[in-house]
């Protein structure tokens, strides 16, 4: 594959130009090759790393976890225990969020189910939201 400009890298990867620059700035991506005209040029290996980062972000991994995973990818002879541990931590966080979202859904359903469809003065949705003394636990 030939080297491509940052705009072409963005189109090919589905990652916006400012995001590519941000990833370079924080060290997730190395500084690209620059030609005589100072244009950044991106190689196939660079685009592969960018796709890895994009996919990890789509799965909800935080930047620090992605940094760890990239370091592991750069040293393929290592045990995958650290990658497994990173994924397990993320899975636990996803499960916690799911629990919070389920609690949120249940609270909203109770509000809707309690609605008499009458006047606002009798509206369970408004009444529940206005009742600051009653909390159903932490929601998302």
TrEMBL record:
Domain HTH merR-type span(s) in chain numbering: 1-72
Lineage: Bacteria, Pseudomonadati, Pseudomonadota, Alphaproteobacteria, Hyphomicrobiales
Record's keyword annotation contains Transcription: yes
Record's protein name: Helix-turn-helix domain-containing protein
CDD domains: HTH_CadR-PbrR-like (cd04785)
Alphabetized Pfam families for the sequence: MerR (PF00376), MerR-DNA-bind (PF09278)
Swiss-Prot/TrEMBL keywords: DNA-binding, Transcription, Transcription regulation
PROSITE patterns in alphabetical order: HTH_MERR_1 (PS00552), HTH_MERR_2 (PS50937)
